[in-house]
Amino acid sequence: VRTAKRTDRLEVYRPGVLSAARRRFLIESRLRNALSTGGLHLMFQPLVDLASNEITGFEALARWHDDELGPVSPNDFIPVAEESGLIVQLGRWALNESMRQLSRWDKAQGSIVPLRMNVNLSPIQMVRDDVISAISDALRMNGVDGRRLTIEMTESALVGDPDACRTLLNALKGFNVSIAMDDFGTGYSNMASLQSLPLDALKIDRSFVSDMLVDSDKHAIIRAILSLAQALKLKTTAEGIESHAVAEALRDMGCTVGQGFYYARPMTADDAFAYWLSRWEFEAI
Ligand code: C2E
Ligand code: MG
Ligand code: MG
Ligand code: MG
To answer: EAL domain spans which residues (predicted)?
Structure first.
């Protein structure tokens, strides 16, 4: 226990609490700096069609290596960005950068295969930013068709104002952008909201997928999500596939797309493109 004298009062801090608060403060100020100096980058993780084994696109995932803090996980800096409002700038950057990457890949491969991109959208962005113009600007400035973009949002987007969320998503459909519910199964969405939102896909949360073959409850939950998706005519993506056996089981159960370390970890843009190219050439033989 450490004590700190504050004017006339003596306050007692537990060291763990103090360092967590200090770390949060540090993350916020360093992140603000990184956003204005280009200190963040994106990594890309393949999305694989489970039936054909082809790569259909990539999920863009933010990465940050700070000089002082070292590598900081998005699980640590995204919540800070959300609390501080920096998520607006971060979200716009992620959209622009990922669409710019798509157009770079188009040039590199002659646009023979229109790769797709999934980009995460924080529910805070929906409230604090003009998401419609952020997305349409990113598409227009990089010459990317909205059909190639999927926005991933979590169920928590529905907690605040479900009507506003629905209106926003409907407006996004005007740009032909697809919408996937991320980390599905861990949040609060109910059947009514699922049915009333213009969703295209459910992304089954990793916590069910990774040990679905040893945990019969998780297996049952995945089965239920897949049949729900089928009934609502939604595509399904399973995240966190770490073995061949899980990939096969999901394919046999009718899941459409897979993502996970079994296929590839998130990679730099160059590695992602080389990986895609090598698989594509292999398929073409
Ligand atoms: P998410 O959107 O659910 O992304 C999937 C996460 O699962 C990624 O973690 C990915 O690296 C990890 N993953 C994928 N396959 C496997 C696997 O087989 N095994 C394991 N153990 N993990 C796997 P990451 O990159 O650390 O991102 C964590 C979360 O941070 C993301 O979860 C997303 O919610 C958020 N995030 C990342 N980038 C952005 C961004 O640009 N904007 C927003 N708003 N959120 C972001
Ligand atoms: Mg995601
Ligand atoms: Mg996810
Ligand atoms: Mg997740």
So the answer is: 24-280
Segment 133-155, tens digit of pLDDT: 999 999 999 999 999 999 999 98
Tokens for 159? 């907690």
With residue 194 as reference, give the H or E element that holds it.
helix 191-196
| Closest ligand relative to 118 C-alpha | 2
Give the closest residue (by CA) to ligand 1 atom 41.
Answer: 62
Tens digits of residue pLDDT in 59-91: 999 999 999 999 999 999 999 999 999 999 999
Average pLDDT for residues 226-246, to the nearest whole number? 96
- Which one-letter amino acid corresponds to residue 251? R
Here the tokens at position 207 are 């916590």
Ligand 2 centre and the CA of 18: distance in Å? 31
Distance 79 CA to ligand 2 centre (A): 14
Angle at 66 (CA atoms; ends 274, 95), nearest 5 degrees: 55
When the pLDDT of each residue in the chain is averaged and rounded to a whole number, the result is 91
Quick one: how far is CA 124 from the chain centroid?
Answer: 14
Q: Note whether 120 and 182 are within 8 A (CB).
A: yes
On whether the CB atoms of residues 238 and 257 are closer than 8 A, the answer is yes
DSSP 120: E
- Whether 94 lines ligand 1, by a CB cut-off of 6 Å, is yes
Length of the chain: 285
Q: Residue 259 is which amino acid?
A: Q
pLDDT over 90 (residue 132): yes
What is the DSSP code (8-state) at residue 214?
T
Are the C-beta atoms of residues 219 and 212 closer than 8 Å to each other?
Answer: yes
Residue where the block lists tokens 């229109």: 114
Reported as half-sphere exposure (CB side, CA atoms, 13 A), residue 53 has a value of 10
Q: What percent of the chain has pLDDT over 70?
A: 92
189 contact partners, CB below 8 Å, separation of at least 6: 155, 158, 181
